[in-house]
Write a structure and sequence with these properties.
By secondary structure, the chain is an alpha/beta fold. About 35% of the residues lie in helices and about 25% in strands. The protein has 9 helices and 12 strands. Strands 2-1-3-8-7-6 form a 6-stranded mixed β-sheet, sandwiched between helices. Helix 2 packs parallel to helix 7 and helix 3 crosses helix 4.
Length: about 260
């Protein structure tokens, strides 16, 4: 989807994430990038709408990339861009886009300067990009991320992913940031389900998510309110607290 045309002020920008790696699907490695990316995107005024986890398989990666890059304004991928033979993300995305894989001259220069006489063919694999791609700076380890169109190809190691995202701060067109506020109570979700739906329906531009927990031998729930407008958020929070009080439920302004 194009992100260059002028858009209305209330335009909602969306993104998807493809998490790539057999180690994720096997349970050997736990994905830590999804939550961080979701929060980072929210600050940029972009909403993460879909996440897929795929194996280190050319066809699976290509299929996911081609499906999601046309369905959203932005597509991020994490994993599979290192120096080893099984890092096939660049090849798979190039195939999905119908372009060749080339060594980016600037990436070659960055890696050569960083490694000096320790540069080798394996490390130069990290300079391979789909033809026509741009680089994403990576201050942490220097090996760059890759951008081609609306696809952002990033490392799987969380610290490196965060370094790359920091380089993109404020660089992507987005809408209004999503604001949140949490109201909590010791109560069963089923007791307040209709109440939550009623409060949400009465306030345009608000979403309420309910997240139960069990602690201290009791059942409670955190109600997370989301809106792009601070006044709407605060007004709804007050209405929810009052509605819970009417049901004899004491609410806490914040998370339990």
């Amino acid at each position: 989807m194009s992100t260059t045309a002028a858009a209305p002020a209330d335009r909602i920008y969306t993104a998807a994430l493809v998490v790539i790696g057999d180690e994720i699907l096997s349970g050997r490695t736990q994905d830590a990038n999804t939550a961080y990316l979701a929060k980072w995107l929210g600050v940029q005024g972009i909403r993460l709408r879909e996440v897929r986890v795929v194996a280190d398989d050319m066809a699976a990666i290509a299929d996911a990339v081609n499906a999601l890059r046309v369905a959203h304004d932005y597509l991020f991928t994490t994993g599979g861009i290192g120096p080893t033979h099984d890092d096939i993300t660049v090849d798979a995305i190039a195939a999905a886009l119908g372009v060749a894989v080339v060594h980016h001259p600037r990436a070659v220069a960055i890696l050569t300067e960083h490694y000096g006489d320790r540069i080798n063919d394996a490390r130069l694999r990290m300079a391979r990009v789909p033809d026509g791609a741009e680089l994403i700076a990576n201050p942490r380890t220097q090996a760059p991320g890759i951008r081609i169109g609306n696809v952002f190809i990033m490392a799987g190691v969380p610290a490196i992913t965060r370094s790359m995202l920091a380089s993109l701060d404020g660089q992507l067109p987005g809408g209004l940031p999503v604001l949140t506020r949490t109201i909590a109570a010791w109560t069963y979700e089923s007791r307040v389900a209709e109440l939550l739906a009623s409060v949400e329906k009465a306030h345009d531009g608000i979403q309420i998510g309910s997240y139960p927990f069990w602690r201290e031998g009791k059942t409670g729930a955190n109600f997370v309110l989301r809106s792009v407008d601070r006044i709407t958020l605060d007004t709804t929070a007050s209405a929810l607290i009052a509605a819970l009080a009417d049901e004899g439920i004491e609410a806490v302004d914040g998370e339990l």
